[in-house]
Amino acid sequence: MKILILTTFVGFIAGSAYCADIDTHDIVAKSIVNYEKDWMAALDFTCTQRDVTKDASGEPKTIEVSQVTVLNGTPYTRLIAKNGHPLDAEEARRENEKYEKAVAARDRETPEQREKRLRKYQEEWGFLHEVPDAFNLKLLGHETISGRPNYLIELTPKPGHTPQSKTARIFPNIEGKLWIDEQDLRWTKAVAHVIDTISVGWVLARIGPGAHITIKQVKVDNEHWLPRELDVNGTAKIMLVKNRALDETVSYSDYKRIRDTQATAAAKNR
Q: I need a labelling partner for 11 at 20 to 30 A (CA). Which of 72, 120, 187, 262 fits?
């Protein structure tokens, strides 16, 4: 028994020393750079998106299945089924009209308009680069997910930090955890908990304390990690008037690599 206790104690001390030698700021910063690379690499893939909205009892209320493709350099989501059934004739007609309008609109774009659209997509997750400086980072340990070792890092808002971008203004009101694959330095999982009300889309919606957002990713080839599941749960006040329960899960599957010469050309010109 004494040997077992001693061995456990030595193992704990060694593990603690190992954790102390790890630069969590550097790990998180590198994982965000990789996240951004994969965000752009997603333009080389098509996938199936399944959006499940649940009712107050937690049962599925609506289920929408869409095909995500690339249209002139940025993603386009096209509804293909609802509540377990293919679209009826009228729904299919409306989706076709929406798609044709999107194609026509992007074909009519001026070079400046197209550049603005591509840049907006490229910069959509740019606010994440503020994470390493906006939060106190603590390595909680290591956790194995799907047979792969992960760093488990806790994030708590850093007092006095001034957000640099508009989206990053939510950081003082959330805390969370990151599971980062130790080999690839990619996010396997990210969980954010709302600790004070955050605004989305200026005053269009406010998400109250207690809400949580979970993102899970999966390695789809020998290089890139792409979204597997996004889960949002909590309460929001829509238009500052109506309270609405949020319980929605969006999952992604059937990733297939495609060729999009316009996206490739855009990437080369950045």
A: 187
